[in-house]
């Protein structure tokens, strides 16, 4: 099966050296992603497209591969095509009929042809000739140039013709890794995962920085969303998940800092640490999910005061976004469920928070803060490659991984519903569907006397959650990894 991958439009207008670099990055990203489905996948570069060829025939596998391409930044469209040598004008319809013939009876249609190269006919000639033949041979209701029921698409490139069977919309944006890296401050709410997604879509290799205010359960929840974003949109780029213990910092703020200033000062403390980590990683920019006026600490004045402590550029992709739009995008990219099932933890809630912080007053309050506590938090930070997050937890709790379901067990399919729908699990034992972002809240309903096997497709998320469930008192939890 063959696909034509169309680049994001901004790639096409770059200078030749930049365009070559961007296409090379997209080529590498796509090969890395698609080899998980087909180790022998063929991805070829052309000036205006990538050509993908796979031997896969199973519709479910092909659909999952298409979905992976759609979620790869740098792609505007993924086209399912039939490629053939360019036939004579009157014979083109013979190549089109097997694909579009069954779709046209009783439907209106239009033929669209894009053509490059020198030919003795025009694109309009192709559209008219093929359209007339299809109308005569398929029982179509008629030709309708505006808003037809079916659009018959052809592309002719020199001596080759592509009949486009299906067109799938991609993310757009730039290939991940083609733009400078950033360090994204991520929490359990709606905003920061969306901000991270947008930087990934724009081509930035996005590392994740988490300030732990709420203990291990909070950290696991944030690991889930970071891992989800990386697996779905990260193109297998090597990035870090960095966790900074911030409970002692919060305790110091609560005892030393005046109530109205705590929100702004907490953000300044986070930026101080983030800035130092970014410089150590040779990263020039931080990313946050803040939007102007969404909460008290996010007024323009407060954001200016917060940013004063950072030498790094602070990017805010959502700065002018409405909350409804952020939630809508979170749901579209699959992170909304995380926020809905894991309310964002905040250890500092001011009764009367300032909305117009004064730098002199903030500095005076910070003078009472023991900065050695901030140094200890930085020293206690852990850095883990995101693809090894599960291994970090498994080192504490050993979990058995099996390739065949046990006879007396219940498999818990913890995949995101979108992924589960594309490839339903087919086994001969009971299957419970509990998405991983709901697993913690529903764990109390699981029996310690039942053997559960967690399944997630790649085995990373299932191992992470299995170790956590064993620690929480469910000793018979295992991992199913066929």
From TrEMBL:
GO cellular component entries: cytosol
Leader sequence residues: none
Keywords: ATP-binding, Cytoplasm, Disulfide bond, Nucleotide-binding, Redox-active center, RNA-binding, Thiamine biosynthesis, Transferase, tRNA-binding
THUMP domain: residues covered: 63-167
Its EC number(s): 2.8.1.4
Compartments where located: Cytoplasm
SMART domains: THUMP (SM00981)
Gene Ontology BP term (one): thiazole biosynthetic process
A Pfam family per the record: THUMP
Pathway: Cofactor biosynthesis; thiamine diphosphate biosynthesis
Catalytic activity: [ThiS sulfur-carrier protein]-C-terminal Gly-Gly-AMP + S-sulfanyl-L-cysteinyl-[cysteine desulfurase] + AH2 = [ThiS sulfur-carrier protein]-C-terminal-Gly-aminoethanethioate + L-cysteinyl-[cysteine desulfurase] + A + AMP + 2 H(+); [ThiI sulfur-carrier protein]-S-sulfanyl-L-cysteine + a uridine in tRNA + 2 reduced [2Fe-2S]-[ferredoxin] + ATP + H(+) = [ThiI sulfur-carrier protein]-L-cysteine + a 4-thiouridine in tRNA + 2 oxidized [2Fe-2S]-[ferredoxin] + AMP + diphosphate
Residues at which ATP binds: 185-186, 267, 289, 298
Keyword ATP-binding recorded: yes
PROSITE patterns with a match to the protein in the record: RHODANESE_3, THUMP
Primary site of residence: cytoplasm
Catalytic residue list: 456 (cysteine persulfide intermediate)
Superkingdom classification of source: Bacteria
Family under the similarity heading: Belongs to the ThiI family.
HAMAP family per the UniProt record, alphabetical: ThiI (MF_00021)
Name of the featured protein: tRNA sulfurtransferase
Origin species: Seongchinamella sediminis
